[in-house]
Write a structure and sequence with these properties.
The chain is an alpha+beta fold and 113 residues long. The strands form two sheets. It has a four-stranded antiparallel beta sheet with strand order 1-5-6-4. Helix 1 crosses helix 2. It is globular and about 35 Å long. It starts with a strand and ends with a helix. The mean pLDDT is 94.
Length: 113
Amino acid sequence: MTASYYRIQEACRPVAQLLDAEYQTSLSYCTGTERSGVSACRSVEDLATYLAISGMPWDPETFVLVEVDADLADVEDEDHDLGARLVIPTKIIAVTPVMDTGLLDLIDAAFAA
């Protein structure tokens, strides 16, 4: 079932690659094996919580927030317990520089919770 999902990525990475099956993979950080799907969260709030607790290194000045329509992949994200999902994007809905969103405020709120 297709639904909206949210992720961040470096602004220099072509967003169109998310729609290309060749790039719709992730590497397991535990085993190094390739899995089908890219990491995303079901809502911006879930993404903020994930970023607050995961320790994922990123720079809000060089990353964009990407909203996609996507189908769930056949495997779970290794961080599914933190709200991350592996998805197969089918459509790019929006791309916004992180600094132009309220994401940082949501991350601060997640830290405070």
